[in-house]
Amino acid sequence: MIELGLELSERNGWAVLAVSGEVDVATAPRLRERLVGLVGDGRTRIVVDLEKVDFIDSTGLGVLVGALKRVRTNDGDLALVCTGPRILKVFEITGLTKVFAIHRSIDEATVTG
Amino acid sequence: MKVDVVRIQVPALPEYLSLMRMVVAGTARIDPLLDDERVDDLRVIVSEACTNAIEAVQARAEDQGVDVASSGAVVSLECRLSASRVEVVITDEAAGFDPAALDVLPAVTDPTRLRIERGLGIPLIRALSDESSIRSGPDGTMVKVALYAAAPVPPGIR
Fold first, then answer.
1. ipTM
2. Torsion of Cα atoms, B88 then B118 then B37 then A51, to 10°
3. What percent of chain B shows pLDDT beyond 70?
4. Strand A101-103 relative to strand B74-81, pairing
5. Once rounded to an integer, what is the mean pLDDT over residues A40-57?
6. Regarding the domain delimited by B4-148, which CATH topology (the fold level of the hierarchy) does it fall under?
7. Average pLDDT in the A48-58 region?
8. Does A93 contact chain B (CB < 8 Å)?
9. What are the residue ranges spanned by the domains of chain B?
10. What is the DSSP string of A13-76?
11. Hey, is A90 helix, strand or coil?
12. What is the CA radius of gyration of chain A?
């Protein structure tokens, strides 16, 4: 079984979901389920921390895009924390750096608003 | 010219995807033709191509009302290492798709783009490889990519 770590914490009114491991078609359903659950619980200001993600492909990106859409229709917001060049590269190539607010730290992601 | 060939065939199931990435990354590092960044590119390429294959097999199984896990459907990966390039071929035997139809995605900055959570895989394969071709038909899909070896750094530089 491929491990996907999902750890939830709280910062300045934001739900911070720290993801670790590999996000692909095998593990993305768990990430999707968790994010959908958060929004269902009324948590619509979400930071997804990707600092401990070793690998992400378009299936993982799709889950994040879906979550962004979901929080926005609920007047919320979703921000990312990511500094790893190998993870940032897939966001850059797919143009998603223009879609997501990508921050260098959880502090930076949660100061706004 | 010497060409080393590594082949692996796995069940067309999501839990084997990580293994496929490991095999391709491990193979590309045997005779380090590619630097770490390009090996990572290759991992993404293989993940995208295998995901498409797994999903195509899944869709076919659903159409036929069979359980994909017991259908025996496989995804095959072949890596070919030569002095100048790494070639990777990923094949499945599920009914294919029209690669040309995938070019019509709205730009990512277009607000309607947010409605589409899929379709980023083929653009990633194209962007991360030096050569790519995708052939798809009723008998299956073959994705073929090549990454060129890094030019050797001349002595005295860096």
1. 0.92
2. -140
3. 80
4. unpaired
5. 97
6. Heat Shock Protein 90 (3.30.565)
7. 97
8. yes
9. 4-148
10. TEEEEEEEEEESTTTHHHHHHHHHHHHHTT--EEEEEEEEEEEE-HHHHHHHHHHHHHHHHTT-
11. helix
12. 13
Claim: this prediction has a pTM higher than 0.80: yes
- Contact flag B17-A1 (C-beta cutoff 8 Å): no
Which residues does B76 contact at the CB level (< 8 Å), separation at least 6?
B7, B8, B9, B89, B90, B91, B92
B8's CB contacts (< 8 A; 6+ apart) are B19, B20, B23, B76, B77
Structure tokens at B24: 């391709």
Strands B131-137, B85-92: pairing is unpaired
Amino acid at A99: V
Chain A neighbors of B126, CB-CB under 8 A: none
Assess whether pLDDT exceeds 60 at residue A88.
yes
**Chains A–B, number of C-beta pairs less than 8 Å apart:** 76
Q: What are the structure tokens assigned to B123, written together?
A: 């653009």
pLDDT digits (tens, 9 = 90+) for B59-112: 888 888 888 777 788 999 999 999 899 999 999 987 666 565 554 555 555 555
